[in-house]
Amino acid sequence: MNLSEISNVIEQRKDQYLEQLFTLLRQKSISAQNIGIRDCSRLLKSMMEDIGINTRLIETDGHPVVYGEIIKDPDAFTLLIYGHYDVQPPDPLDEWLSPPFEPTIRNGKIFCRGAGDNKGQLMAQILSIKTYVDTFGELPINIKMVFEGEEESASANLPSFVEQNKELLKADLVYTSDGPMHDSGAPYVLLGVRGILYVELTAKGADWENHSGNKGNIVPNPAWTLIDLLRTMRDKNERVLIEGFYDDICKPTEKEKEIIKELPFDREQVAEKIGYKQLDMDGEAYYHKLTMEPTFNIAGFTSGYGGEGAKTIIPSQATLKMDMRLVVDQDPDDIYKKFCAHVKKHAPDIEVKHLGAMAPSRTPANQEVVDIVTKAVSESFNQKPVLQPSLGGSLPDYVWTKILGLPSVVVPYANFDEANHSPNENIGVENFFDGIKCTCHVIYRLGECAR
């Protein structure tokens, strides 16, 4: 047997594999609303057991983790595969062209909530195990699988789960398939993620709204209070002025600088896809800002009247939501303390609320296992993958790199326009099958190098 046989097996089983995916997609699993989560975890456990994966549900303080393993030899190379079975709410429902929990194929894509994020990619990983074993007779390495049910709710209990199960989760590499492929259509190999800190600030004025003329200059406007505070937080060059904000940022290595320079970039194409035609930077600056620099973003600002026409009032309250994407080695807890200290110094009456956080993560690019995975992905897609030091967004990758001390790579299988979190979420039919094939190639090459 050789790797070419993998494609033949997948081709013969396309209808079967699609129906297995559709079964999982039809089962609701909305973590934010606790809809269908328990039923989905049981269904996933049953599907994994049918394939021959030793599987069990492990309870957490929230939704259960579905844990599976096939141990060839306790001393053999061990690959830990991570994914999540929970999905976002489907709202707004009237924007879906087909029912959000009834998988529908249109124009070569499977439309359904969870199709791209993350059930389609999760099932590609699971079905790769069946495909590989049925083709070669056995796995060349140990496989462990962790599928959580809270990723769409900030993975609140994943860190404690990992802390409590360090022995169970011992491995040599963590492999995640989540998110979209590169906008060029090329496969990705991502070596990390940015972290996040999400906060809410509330400024209060009078006990109720007042007439903007009769009480103008008398009653303070809380919107201006927030605006005045924001002016102390960032200068005109977009540099954050919070003391110590940049203290712990690791400079990119020479290897990472080389990788960034080699990344493909089409300014006009990117500008069109993000809806900002005024984009004015080269590829090196674009990727450096996206992977190596933190952000300081206003996600929402609410105050006063926002309806049609005029309403002349002084609002009684203003609320600001901010997210900060953090890079290695910024600590979200440390940044939150510095943020609060800044607010206390400049606007002590403003209330700060911590809404969520996740640490950044990065695996060094010079590790041998990175080369092995990159070559396997290239071989599977017959195309050189885009190797990127970090994803611009956030995943709970730090639980593997910081708590377990393992290298971790993210290889997305979904198409760039998967519309995850949006109405009409989808995954390309061929993306799904390519994901099965790619995971098989990664397993094969890891096994070959481990021998």
TrEMBL record:
A Gene Ontology biological process in which this protein takes part is: proteolysis
Q: Which domain of life is it from?
A: Bacteria
Q: Which UniProt keywords apply?
A: Hydrolase, Metal-binding, Protease
Q: Which InterPro entries match?
A: Cyt/Met_Dipeptidase (IPR051458), Peptidase_M20 (IPR002933), Peptidase_M20_dimer (IPR011650)
Query: What GO MF annotations does this protein's record show?
Result: metal ion binding; peptidase activity
Short name of one Pfam family: Peptidase_M20
Q: Which residues form the Peptidase M20 dimerisation domain?
A: 192-349
Q: By its UniProt entry, which PANTHER family does this protein fall under?
A: BETA-ALA-HIS DIPEPTIDASE, DI- AND TRIPEPTIDASE DUG2-RELATED
Q: What is this protein called?
A: Deacylase
Origin organism of this chain? Virgibacillus profundi
